[in-house]
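Much of what follows relies on a compact textual record of a protein's fold. Here is one such record, which you should read through line by line:
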Amino acid sequence: RGDGAGLPRTGGKMASTAAGKQRIPKVAKVKNKAPAEVQITAEQLLREAKERELELLPPPPQQKITDVEELNDYKLRKRKTFEDNIRKNRTVISNWIKYAQWEESLKEIQRARSIYERALDVDYRNVTLWLKYAEMEMKNRQVNHARNIWDRAITTLPRVNQFWYKYTYMEEMLGNVAGSRQVFERWMEWQPEEQAWHSYINFELRYKEVDRARAIYERYILFIQAPLFFFNMAPLVLVHPDVKNWIKYARFEEKHSYFAHARKVYERAVEFFGEEHMDEHLYVAFAKFEENQKEFERVRVIYKYALDRIPKQDAQNLFKNYTIFEKKFGDRRGIEDIIVSKRRFQYEEEVKANPHNYDAWFDYLRLVESDADAETVREVYERAIANVPAIQEKRHWKRYIYLWINYALYEELEAKASKRTRQVYQACIELIPHRKFTFAKMWLLYAQFEIRQKNLPLARKALGTSIGKCPKNKLFKGYIELELQLREFDRCRKLYEKFLEFAPENCTSWIKFAELETILGDIDRARAIYELAISQPRLDMPEVLWKSYIDFEIEQEEYEKTRNLYRRLLQRTQHVKVWISFAQFELSAGREGSLSRCRQIYEEANKAMRNCEEKEERVMLLESWRSFEEEFGTDTTKERIEKLMPEKIKKRRKLQAEDGSDAGWEEYYDYIFPEDTANQPNLKLLAMAKLWKKQQQESEAAEMDPDKDVDESQS
């Protein structure tokens, strides 16, 4: 688009041509072909057109019709407009409805009726069209015409519930109760949704027809059951009746004081749903009905029946109502049963989520043992012990084995069933993989049980089998203790021999064996056992064994043998505690020359430990020697031991980290012994340092108090 000069121009004259020839207009010539300064795009044109659509047009002027001819002319124009709109698009039903409503406003009912009929020929499935058509007839009090339209509508579209509601409402408003009932009956033949049935029931109840309402409820229930039993419309799983319909039926009977009928409905509902499709809402409603009738025992039976059969995760509301009921009408025992059942449900969920959670099984079993009967407890125990650990490692079996132990103890102590207890022990022993590991506790408990049953051969057989299959220190000790209690000393000797063959490094076993022989008075056998023990190449606690042997000889007052034992022990170890113990033995012997022998041993020990790297042990020896001399020594010996005591000095040493880097310095205490010739220069240096320090302190004190020095000089 250009400016005004660029617009095309056409001339008014046409070129004249010869006669009989067509006139051809002159071609417009554009003089200015330069573009305009302001260019307008197509997008801008469309936007302006859209904006101008919103501009309000002035209303058409009011037209006053003064005579019949003008009215007819107006009607003709309007009808022509409506017909043109319909002809342009027949499927737009709103045009038909506007046309019919305009004719209705002119009281042209016949014409409006004709328009509606034409529209139905175009789209008979349009619900709005039927409703407007029937409403027009009802507005103009054309009842029969309205009935005819409703009949045609429900025949053509029987699944549109709005037609049925409008039709029954019209008949009821006209007072035609029988006609309305007849329409409801026709509707029910189509098996509509639940609300339709309830509308029919409410209709009968409005006219106090309780028996008819009951009959409708019965048909309604039968309709619900029909897909399950009579029709092949859907499988049983897909078509399932709703519990709320049964509850509504029962409450209807209860509301009208037909309590026996209401109870019968609930019972039929329970029977109908069975145990496969139980619903907690049905049983809650049933129990509340019985509670209202003061039938508390029946309420309790209903709740327990439902709780025993409905899965716990689907019975939360049921359990809640049962708890409230027991708190209102039950005793303490009933309330405790409720709490126990709730805890039992929690434990069931825990063990179901993780069957190998043995702590949850222990809590569950403790709860069951406190409340349930023996068969229930046994059932839970069997379920618990069935969860055998998948891995054959002892750490995974340590918690599991206590399930068997508790099971056996329950059978023996609570159920008093010794036969079942024996079976539990034997089953557990067979289950344990003895080649990889065993549980000595299980064997010993089984043997102790057989002893309590006065069946000693079976107890010995069990322990002998355990030692043969999987020998352990604990098994040997338990078997020996049993025979000791029975005073079977020959059996004890044999068991100790087997035990020491199995574990010769066990010092405790050697000591116990020797103590047994000592108790029996066989000193030579006890001494021989000790000699065998100390001659073993490998021992777990040799110091304990040697101490026990030495104490044994001291008790027998064999002092020479005790000295020999100390000398033999010192050949193996030069530990300071051995020397101190040897010296204290000589001191406690109580014979002549004991002090000199004790002092001699201290001398030997000090000489032997001069080359010892552990200076603290040598200090410990000297302190023990000094304590001895302070109690029993003379001034000379005391002075001598004081000269042997070391000097304690503080030193520093360099530390290194694990990676070899410098980690700083560390302070520690070291000891300098006067006897060591290498330490003599150090001792002289220390003495000189102490003397210099003392002089420094004296000079500082003199400077601080000069008056004192003057007084001293005058004096």
Observations:
- Residues 1-21, 225-240, 708-715 have pLDDT under 50 and may be disordered.
- The chain has 35 helices and two strands.
- Residues 127 and 162 are 9 Å apart (CA to CA).
